[in-house]
Amino acid sequence: MPLPMSRSALRRVKRLVVKVGTGTLTDRAGRFDRDNCARLASELAEVARGRKVVLVSSGAVALGAERLGLARSRGKPWDIPTKQACAAAGQPHLMAAWGEALGRHGLVTAQVLLTADDLASRKRFLNARRTFERLLDAGAVPVVNENDTVAVDEIKVGDNDTLAALVAGCVEADAVAMLTDVDGLYDRNPAEPGARLLRDVPRVTAEIERSAGGAGSERSVGGMITKVKAARRLGAQGVVTALLSGRRARALPALLAGEPVGTVFAPGAHRLSSRQGWLAAAARGKGVILVDAGARRALVEQGRSLLPSGVRGVQGQFGVGDPVDVAVDPARPFARGLAGYGADEVRRIAGLKTGEIERALGYKYLDEIVHRNDLVVLETGRE
Ligand SMILES: Nc1ncnc2c1ncn2[C@@H]1O[C@H](COP(=O)(O)OP(=O)(O)O)[C@@H](O)[C@H]1O
Ligand SMILES: N[C@@H](CCC(=O)OP(=O)(O)O)C(=O)O
After folding, report:
1. pLDDT tens-digit profile of 123-161?
2. 335-338 and 375-377 beta bridge pairing
3. Distance between CA atoms of 2 and 355, rounded to whole angstroms?
4. Distance CA 280, CA 86 (A)
5. Which residues line ligand 2 (CB under 6 A)?
6. 323-327 and 175-180 as β-strands: parallel, antiparallel, unpaired?
7. Taking a C-beta distance cutoff of 8 angstroms, is the pair 160, 169 a contact?
8. 160 is in an annotated binding site
9. Does the pLDDT value for residue 274 go beyond 90?
10. Residue 217's pLDDT is what?
11. Which one of 172, 237, 373, 375 has the fewest beta carbons within 10 angstroms of its own beta carbon?
């Protein structure tokens, strides 16, 4: 039987993000699992031959808790300062562990700590991209984690599955492999009897999301649902995602050889440009441009630019070049783009024909309020 397209595509991957979860780096008692880290490092070194690899590694909080001698009493989650203190204590040891383990295979590691805020700013996103690029050119393995000690709710990504998806967009990876403590995605929580491993997921449906709703391990943050949501986002950007065991020997090399391990989420046919990928995943709209149903159809179904005639109003304040959301219902934006006009200008030209822009403003930059090349339809926009 021929391999599904997405599995055979894995053989051709040149840029790979590998995300390693807490459960893969700690044993049942929550202690750092040096042996598994060493085994994974040897497999990472193997797959890094002929490929650029970025590692997104969790484990700082667990490692820090171990070093600080903090045990979590069952059912009682740590407060945020405790978690942040654990991350601060654990992160250098996590880096040291990867540095030593990958160093044994001749690989140099480099620490990259990010928050959502860093990636939402176009300037900082591009800076991060240049740093990644330089590191990869030098043959190093960037090891990424969230900058937990400074990341309060408003600026944090929140879990490393989502962070891995953002990093994949930043480095323009072709694939993301998430290593976890189960063999892949099951049709229900694998702790339940009769759970079946799903090998290939052509599309992340609502049913798939429901099946991944159960909580992860006590020490993990995201659980299965953040992995599935990250896979859905990556698919919409044209990137393939695989979910596999971080404990089973040789699962990662086997995956990249196209063998039937783990779960593979098929990517959508359309690969977003790097700027569109940033708009879709990392950027946050500074305001909302409200449009009518006709404009929505033109943008979503016909791939057109946004013209003033379909605009009904504006929420918030933004300048030329800022990211803005586009919506019929402001609670559910369906597209995001870079504004061709500032918010006050859009208010004045809303509903006009392009030929009337100059009369209304006294000048005209462009016909479009958001040009097609600077616009991306969000996943929710396609429903
Ligand atoms: N449908 C499902 N398929 C697989 N695992 C699931 C599912 N629903 C819930 N889970 C749980 O998700 C866990 C993996 O997520 P998580 O603990 O966050 O791992 P990691 O630390 O690798 O990020 C599994 O150990 C399992 O208990
Ligand atoms: N940044 C945190 C991990 C966050 C996280 O998403 O953990 P996990 O669900 O185990 O991948 C840490 O290093 O402990």
Report:
1. 999 999 999 999 999 999 999 999 998 877 777 898 999
2. antiparallel
3. 55
4. 32
5. 21-22, 58-62, 87, 145-146, 148, 159-160, 220-222
6. unpaired
7. no
8. yes
9. no
10. 62
11. 373
**What is the whole-number distance in angstroms between the Cα of residue 327 and the centre of ligand 2?**
33
User: Given the CA of residue 58, which atom of ligand 2 is nearest to it?
Assistant: 13
Burial (Cβ within 10 Å: 0-12, 13-18, ≥19) of residue 120: middle
How many whole angstroms separate alpha carbon 99 and alpha carbon 280? 33
- 179-206 tens-digit pLDDT: 999 999 999 999 899 999 999 999 999 9
Ligand 2 atom nearest to 19, measured from its CA: 11
Residue type, 144: V
Does 226 sit in the ligand 1 pocket, CB within 6 Å? Answer: no
CATH superfamily, domain 5-276, is: Acetylglutamate kinase-like (3.40.1160.10)
Does residue 33 carry a pLDDT above 80? yes
Question: Tell me, what's the pLDDT at 340?
Answer: 96
Angstrom distance (rounded) from CA 46 to CA 167: 22
Strand partners, 89: none
Amino acid at 290: L
Cβ of 247 below 6 Å from ligand 1: no
Pocket test for ligand 1, best of 55, 160, 189 (most atoms within 8 A of CB): 189
Query: What CATH homologous superfamily does 285-382 map to?
Result: PUA domain (2.30.130.10)
For the chain, the domains span: 5-276, 285-382
For this complex, say whether ipTM is above 0.90.
yes
Closest by CA to 101, choosing from 59, 61, 134, 67, is: 59
